[in-house]
Specification:
Layout lengths: L1 H20 L1 E5 L7 H16 L5 E5 L7 H10 L4 E5 L22 H9 L1 H11 L4 E15 L14 E4 L3 H10 L2 E4 L5 H6 L5 E4 L1 H6 L8 E16 L1 H4 L4 H35 L3 E3 L4 H20 L2 H8 L2
Parallel strand pairs: 1-2, 1-3, 5-6, 5-7, 8-9
Antiparallel strand pairs: 3-8, 4-7, 4-8
Helix pairs in contact: 1-3, 2-10, 6-11
The chain binds (2R,3R)-2,3,4-trihydroxybutanoic acid (EAX).
Protein name: Tripartite ATP-independent transporter DctP family solute receptor
Subcellular location: Periplasm
Family: Belongs to the bacterial solute-binding protein 7 family.
Length: 322
């Protein structure tokens, strides 16, 4: 019901604006100063420049128009224009994307970016395009780490019984079940309050998100588990995009690439500065983590969610990218 209401409101306010004024709304779940906010602004500025002002844009930040799942649905029904989202809920719409959400798959940022900017990334953008969505470009959220309010997590045993919010992603849920936590899927806009009220003890997100959302206000411990790389993607609504000329489509694509470059630069910056920022704000940052036991449990419990349907070919291809 809530989703339907948000969708209806978005349809009235955004649909009209997009048609009459060529004003493109870029939705995302974080603050305007976050890596997504910076990316959204780069999208808008590039699109405005390339089109000589024929297109303008504005951000709908901080989950104003719903969680990532709601916004993806909005793209499909045409009530949203452009969305920057993690792949968290995207597998519910395009199951092939789960390949990218597998824990301990990507070695580092270079590996992930190379895969997404290459042949595999293009294939998966095309897959998105077969599901009533337009995948414009891969962008980035970052390697995810566990935070919580209860204790310093150093080993899987420390996760035992911890109520941990995950994204609405069955690969991630299976991984955390395997590692010993009690995963609770939840949309991002509900997360801060859920932690504040003790509905969940913790969550997992990259440094970018932990700092943008000021999770230190409700979380004490952050463990640099880096258990999964979290890709993000710039998506457009077919209702908007399919009506564009080829030239206009190329503007949208270039704007999405500029958005990804801006967000990745901000990810890079925060990977350096974010740890200090978390410490300054009172978090205990646990860095001495042996990832091997986490990886073993996570892989055992979660890879089959993907491989039962699609086999191991894509995983092997991703691992082979140097
Ligand atoms: O995309 O839901 C999440 O935890 C995401 O990482 C966040 O919304 C940014």
């Amino acid at each position: 019901m809530k989703h339907a209401v948000i969708g209806a409101i978005a349809a009235i306010t955004l649909g009209t604006a997009a048609e009459a004024q060529q004003n493109v709304v870029v939705g995302h779940s974080l603050s305007p100063t976050s890596h997504y906010g910076v990316g959204a602004q780069a999208f808008i500025d590039t699109l405005t420049d390339l089109s000589g002002g024929a297109f303008t844009g504005e951000q709908a930040p901080a989950g104003q128009l719903g969680g990532e799942r709601d916004m993806i649905e909005g793209l499909q029904i045409g009530s949203m224009d452009v969305v920057i989202t993690s792949t968290g809920p995207l597998g519910n719409f395009v199951p092939e994307i789960y390949a990218l959400d597998l824990p301990f798959l990507f070695r580092d940022y270079d590996h992930a970016r190379k895969v997404l900017d290459g042949e595999i990334g293009q294939e998966l953008l095309d897959k998105i395009g077969e599901n009533n969505l337009v995948g414009l470009a891969w962008t980035e959220n970052g390697f995810r780490h566990v935070t919580n309010s209860q204790r310093a997590v150093r080993t899987p045993a420390d996760l035992d019984g911890l109520k941990l919010r995950t994204m609405e992603n069955k690969v991630h849920m299976a991984a955390f079940q395997g590692m010993g936590a009690a995963p609770t899927p939840m949309a991002f806009p509900e997360l801060f309050t859920a932690m504040q009220q003790g509905v969940v003890d913790g969550q997992e997100n990259p440094v970018t998100v932990i700092t943008a959302a000021k999770f230190w206000e409700v979380q004490k411990y952050v463990s640099l588990t880096g258990h999964v790389y979290s890709p993000a993607v710039v998506l457009a609504s077919p209702a908007l995009y399919d009506g564009l000329t080829d030239e206009q489509k190329s503007w949208f694509q270039q704007a999405a690439k500029a958005s990804a470059a801006a967000s990745r630069a901000e990810v890079n910056r925060l990977e350096e500065a974010g740890i200090a920022l978390m410490r300054e704000n009172g978090m205990e940052v646990i860095t001495d983590i042996d990832k091997a036991p986490f990886a073993e449990l996570a892989e055992k419990s979660s890879y089959s969610v993907y491989t039962d349907q699609y086999g191991t070919e894509m995983i092997d291809r991703i691992k082979a990218v140097e």
